[in-house]
C-alpha cells in the first residue's frame, strides 16, 4: 500500500507544478508590471520630506539652510524637498500685507456689487412706474419742508424773546448807564443764555434739514435713472 501512496503523491506534485508552469508569461509579466506601478504610485503619493529652506533678500542674495535661515525672517521663504522641488512657501511680511490689502479691496468690490444687486431688486419689487418714485420723493421732501418751517418758526420766536430780554437786561448793571442801576438778576442772565443756545441749536437743525433735502433729491434722482435703465424706459 505504501508504494501506491508515494506514487500518488508524486503525481499530485507533478500536476501542481505543471499547472503553475502552464500560466502564460504575459499574465506573469502583467502582474509584475502592476506591482511596480503600484509601488511607484505609492512613492509619488508619499509626503515629500521638507529638507531645505531658501529665500532671496533685498540685495538679491539667496540664502539656504536645513532650517529657516535668520536672513529669511520676514521674507518669502521656499521650502524644498530632498529633490529640490518647492513643496510650500512661507509668506513674508510684504507679501502678507499685499495679500491682505488685495483681500480688503476684493471684499469691498464684492460688497458694493451685492449692495447694488440688492438695491436693483428693491427698485423692481417696490415700484411699478417712474411716477411712483417721484410721488414718494415729493412726499419725503414735503415732510422735510414742514420740519424746516417749524424750525424757522421756533427761531423767530426765540429771536423775539431775545429782543425782550435785551430790553429788560438793559436796565441792570453792567449794561445800564445809570450809576444806581441794580445788578443783573441771575434768572434773566440764565434765560438769555438758554435763548441764545436754543437759537444756535435750531439753526444747526435748519442746516441739517437742508442737507437732507439735497441728499434725498440726489438719491431719488439716482433711483429714477437706475429704474429707467432696468425697465428700459427713456
Topology:
Blueprint: H1 2-21, H2 25-45, E1 50-56, E2 62-65, E3 77-81, E4 86-90, H3 93-126, H4 130-169, H5 186-231
Antiparallel strand pairs: 1-2, 1-3, 3-4
Helix pairs in contact: 4-5
- State the major sheet: 4 strands, antiparallel
Helix and strand composition category: alpha+beta
Q: Please tally the helical runs, counting DSSP H or I stretches of 4 or more residues.
A: 5
Q: Which CATH first-tier class of the largest domain would you pick? A: Mainly Alpha
| CATH architecture term of the largest domain | Orthogonal Bundle
Structure description:
The chain is of the alpha+beta class and 234 residues long. It folds into four domains: 1-46; 47-90, no CATH class; 96-125; 127-231, Helix Hairpins (Orthogonal Bundle). It has five helices and four strands, in the order ααββββααα. It has helices spanning 2-21, 25-45, 93-126, 130-169, 186-231, and strands at 50-56, 62-65, 77-81, 86-90. The protein has a four-stranded antiparallel beta sheet, with no helix packed on it. Helix 4 packs antiparallel against helix 5. The termini are far apart. The model is unreliable at 1-12 and 14-22 (pLDDT under 50).
Amino acid at each position: 500500500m505504501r508504494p501506491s501512496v508515494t506514487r500518488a503523491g508524486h503525481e499530485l506534485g507533478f500536476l501542481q507544478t505543471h499547472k503553475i508552469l502552464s500560466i502564460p508569461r504575459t499574465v506573469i509579466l502583467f502582474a509584475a508590471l502592476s506591482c511596480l506601478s503600484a509601488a511607484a504610485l505609492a512613492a509619488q503619493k508619499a509626503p515629500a520630506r521638507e529638507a531645505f529652506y531658501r529665500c532671496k533678500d533685498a540685495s538679491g542674495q539667496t540664502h539656504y539652510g536645513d532650517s529657516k535661515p535668520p536672513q529669511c525672517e520676514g521674507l518669502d521663504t521656499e521650502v524644498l524637498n530632498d529633490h529640490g522641488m518647492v513643496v510650500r512657501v512661507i509668506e513674508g511680511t510684504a507679501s502678507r500685507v499685499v495679500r491682505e490689502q488685495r483681500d480688503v479691496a476684493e471684499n469691498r468690490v464684492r460688497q458694493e456689487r451685492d449692495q447694488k444687486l440688492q438695491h436693483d431688486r428693491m427698485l423692481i419689487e417696490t415700484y411699478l412706474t417712474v411716477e411712483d418714485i417721484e410721488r414718494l420723493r415729493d412726499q419725503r421732501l414735503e415732510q422735510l419742508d414742514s420740519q424746516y418751517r417749524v424750525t424757522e418758526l421756533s427761531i423767530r420766536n426765540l429771536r423775539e424773546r431775545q429782543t425782550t430780554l435785551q430790553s429788560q437786561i438793559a436796565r441792570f448793571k453792567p449794561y445800564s448807564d445809570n450809576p444806581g442801576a441794580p445788578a443783573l438778576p441771575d434768572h434773566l442772565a440764565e434765560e438769555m443764555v438758554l435763548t441764545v443756545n436754543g437759537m444756535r441749536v435750531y439753526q444747526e437743525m435748519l442746516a441739517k434739514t437742508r442737507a437732507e433735502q439735497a441728499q434725498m433729491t440726489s438719491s431719488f434722482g439716482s433711483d429714477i435713472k437706475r429704474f429707467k435703465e432696468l425697465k428700459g424706459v427713456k
